[in-house]
Amino acid sequence: MAIVRGKQARWRVYAAHAFLVAFLIVTLFPLAAVVSISLRPGNFATGSLIPETISLEHWKLALGIPYQAPDGSLLQPPFPVLTWLWNSIKVASISAFLIVGISTSAAYAFGRMKFRFQQGVLNTMLLLQMFPAVLALVAIYAIFETIGNYIPFLGLETHGGLVLAYLGGVATHIWTIKGYFETIPVEIEENAKVDGATHWQAFSRVLLPMAVPILMVVFVLAFIGTIIEYPVASILLREEGNLTLAVGAKYYLNDQRFLWGDFAAAAVLSGLPITLVFLLAQRWIVSGLTAGGVKG
Amino acid sequence: MASTMNYSTLPPTPLERVARALRWPITALAALAALYTVFLIYTAGQPGWALGTLVLFGSAFYVYVISDQFAYRYLFPGVAGMLVFIAFPLVYTAQIGFTNYSSAHLLSEDRARATLLERADPVLDQVQRFTLHADGAEYRIALHEGEDENSAVRWVSPPLALKKATTVELQPLGATPLQPALSLKAVIEHREALMQLALKLPDAAEPLRYLGLREYGPVREQWKLDPDGGLLRVEDGKHFKPNRDEGYFESVDGEHLQPGFKVNVGWRNYARMVLDAEFRSPFLSIFVWTVLFALITVVCCTALGMMLAVLLNWEDLKGRTLYRTLVFLPYAVPGFISILVFKGLFNQNFGEINAILNALFGVKPAWFADPLLAKTMLLIVNVWLGYPYVMILCSGLLKSIPSDLYEASALAGASPWTNFAKITAPLIIKPLAPLLVSAFAYNFNNFVLIALLTDGRPDFLSTKIPAGQTDILVSYTYRIAFRDSGTDYGLAAAISTLIFLLVAAMSLVNLRLMKKAQG
Question: In this structure, which of A16, A95, A154, B119 has its CB flanked by the most CB atoms within 10 Å?
């Protein structure tokens, strides 16, 4: 831009920097505080942001190692955080894997084939996705109670059931993948078919290898979406050893038993990997967001 | 049709040949397994669920075996998932909203009747002490003459595997002595199996039933079935008729039996929201707070996010990439963690926020006990969580504004504010509007924030159904359905249905705005 700037503009730049720094101090304070708290001794310690005495007790407990307090008593880990983290990662990976499979195949049908009610089906699916699962929790609970009577490993209190519950939310992913398929020229597949490939071969050997980048993006989006899901997981899972992180984490901050320091360590431990994944995938998430998705 | 699509001239590989040979046996097995599942559900007395399952399996069978439409094969899993786990729950919820489904009306009428008919009282003077004895890998039950387990054995059972429910004929103790009696712990282990046994004595008509860890005895049923489907209380001969309006078995003088059963109550749940004064007043204030909460959140997030986006789009500013990453950070942290972090930070006594406020101003606000402060806290946290989203949306849209517009305004000597008000805002508000409507809809149903931060507290005083001052409609619904006493699924489902309609309306507005933005 060829705009002439005066002295006034320089002051504006300084003011903008000052504002941004002040804003960041306020907004990032909670994140800095929680790291600091995780290193302070005791569960009720207050102090400066850079702790004077560093104690690893909360970190040991979060990693499942009993901690020998200075007064000689042995503290046991209050909650199985690593089990919760593992449960979350397990459920989220399996769900994300299946969601990618289901939405890819549906996106292929929408993007590459002609059938009756094509636009109608897609619009209906996108519209249905606008109703959050939290509104139908009673019904979802009843469905899984019934399923569990006949197929026990998909009922209440099972991770299989939770994965199954997450498989309904594929509409936005179908939309994303379909958009990507449309950027790939259809002639490549047609050539493969002329050379003798079946429908399935053209899809799996020709189109899919070219779509790997978008499949990875959808995998990450679905992974994050399921790992942070709270309402459905909170009604399907109740037993302590069975919970996902999103459901379990709140038990640290019970009014009767407020384990603030222990929570801080567990939060940093489990939140950091998810945050890093999110930051790494930021570019794609941003393009997904502008298409209309909202993160919780 | 499938074979005509295949132009391949290569001979089939061994794997393909195996797959072709196995295709029909596997299909047949899958069909049998599916039919068996449907049959099981049907015999369990749930014809509705059985029909639904049959339709689901039937359509899968049609799509993958009979139909020659390839598209449906690729579509089926996704569409089935949507229908079963999103569309069906919506319809089912709406239906529950017209019933009295709740913890007191959990069963269908038939099952409630069956439950009552199963109830029986022990005949106290004929209770017999029993002991359990090992016999090889099996077990024998011995009934004693007296109340003491050392008293003489009167009857013994043949050796039993203790696996299934049967009627067992008892015999007098023969010549072979019994092993020593097993401990109470062993009896507890076999409790389930013992409960299912009926012990038949040679000299008595009524079989003996399991009454406790030490006793078997004859039982007398509490209820008899009337020919009209009502129940007769054996004890006093009182008749109870099913009241299909209220969902109870009811006597003439108005006595109700527990458990009640599920019946359709029409619009009663909805009428409660409008007519029942004690319910209406908390419901209305929760509704108003929900709208305010979503509205203020969206307005504040938009103001903050748009300002940051404009600022970070300014080319004279150095270090924009770093700023952008840091400003984005609140969004990257998983919501359930940052919300709980705030719960700790806002804690009245040892939270960091009050420590700072106390050092600066000497105040320690009760963030969780005072309704107004709790609401303020929710809004602060939600804006913290939400502004990066709007910022990202806006920076995407800002890039599409042609830069010559700003060059022209610079020539005219316009101030930054004029630039924003006359160029930037008008150009991005149109495409932004539908996204803001969906953000509003999202926050209208922002259950996770309320559930993890305040759980709806502080509660309204003296309401019939517990309700919180910071509850929004969805968290209130969750509370009615899954927490506190007297889970009332019917009422919760009715409120949910009301929210569906609101969400649907917002979606329609959204579509309109989107069409306008594109057009």
Answer: A95
Work out the number of other CB atoms within 10 angstroms of the CB of residue B16: 12
Cα of first residue to Cα of last residue in chain B, in angstroms, is: 43
Phi, psi of A106 (to 5 degrees): -70, -40
Q: What are phi and psi of B421, to 5 degrees?
A: -70, -30
Half-sphere exposure of B405 (CA within 13 A, CB side): 16
3-class SS at B168? strand
Residues of B in contact with A250 (CB under 8 A): 336, 340, 452
| CA pair distance B441, B504, nearest whole angstrom | 10
Task: For residue A50, give both structure tokens.
Answer: 């850079």
| DSSP output for chain A | ------HHHHHHHHHHHHHHHHHHHHHHHHHHHHHHHHHSSSSS----SS-SS---HHHHHHTT--EE-TTSPEEPPSS-HHHHHHHHHHHHHHHHHHHHHHHHHHHHHHHH---TTHHHHHHHHHHHTTS-GGGGHHHHHHHHHHHHHHSGGGSTT-HHHHHHHHTT--HHHHHHHHHHHHHS-THHHHHHHHTT--HHHIIIIIIHHHTHHHHHHHHHHHHHHHHT--HHHHHH--SGGG--HHHHGGGGB-SSSB-HHHHHHHHHHHHHHHHHHHHHTHHHHHHHHHTT----
Q: How far apart are the first and last CA of chain A?
A: 38
User: E-strand spans in B68-127?
Assistant: 120-122
Of B79, B308, B316, the CB nearest to A13: B316
A167: amino acid identity, one letter:
L
A136·B89 Cβ contact <8 A: yes
pLDDT tens digit sequence for B209-267:
888 778 888 888 888 888 888 888 887 888 888 888 888 888 888 788 878 888 888 88
Q: Which two tokens stand for residue B24?
A: 């029909």
Is B333 within 8 Å of A250 when comparing Cβ atoms? no
Q: Is the separation of the CB atoms in B262 and B100 below 8 Å? A: yes
Query: What's the pLDDT score for residue A23?
Result: 93
User: Which amino acid makes up residue A223?
Assistant: F
Asked if the bond preceding B458 is cis, omega within 30° of 0, the reply is yes
Give the ranges where B313-454 is alpha helix by DSSP (H).
320-332, 335-345, 352-361, 371-399, 404-411, 416-419, 425-444, 447-453
Residue B463 is predicted with a pLDDT of 76
- Find out whether A243 and A230 touch, Cβ atoms under 8 Å: no
Categorize the per-residue pLDDT at A293 as very low, low, confident or very high, splitting at 50, 70 and 90: very low
Q: What is the DSSP string of A81-106?
A: HHHHHHHHHHHHHHHHHHHHHHHHHH
Average pLDDT over residues B357-375: 91
Closest CA relative to residue B284, chosen from B294, B292, B274: B274
Least Cα separation, residue B209 to chain A (angstroms): 27
Q: Which of B107, B120, B353 is nearest to B222 (CA)?
A: B120
Give the list of residues 6+ apart from residue A261 with CB closer than 8 angstroms, or none.
A37, A38, A40, A41, A42, A43, A44, A45, A57, A58
Of A131, A136, A230, the CB nearest to B451: A230
- Is the ipTM above a cut-off of 0.95? no
Note if the bond before A273 is cis, omega within 30 degrees.
no
Tell me, what amino acid is at B473?
A: L
- Residue B519 — pLDDT band, cuts 50, 70, 90? low
Greatest extent of chain B over all pairs of C-alpha atoms, in Å: 118
Task: For residues B392 and B330, give the distance between their C-alpha atoms in angstroms, rounded to a whole number.
Answer: 13
Spatial contact of B470 and B378, defined as CB atoms under 8 Å apart: yes
Q: What would the two tokens of residue A292 be?
A: 């209309």
**Dihedral-angle region of residue A61 (phi above 0 means left; psi in -120 to 50 means alpha; beta otherwise):** alpha
- Residues B502 and B505: their CA atoms lie apart, in Å, by 5
pLDDT tens digits, one per residue of B40-88: 888 877 788 888 888 888 888 888 888 877 788 888 888 888 888 888 8
Contact B208, B157 (CB under 8 A): no
The candidate with the shortest Cα–Cα distance to B263, out of B462, B105, B82, is B105
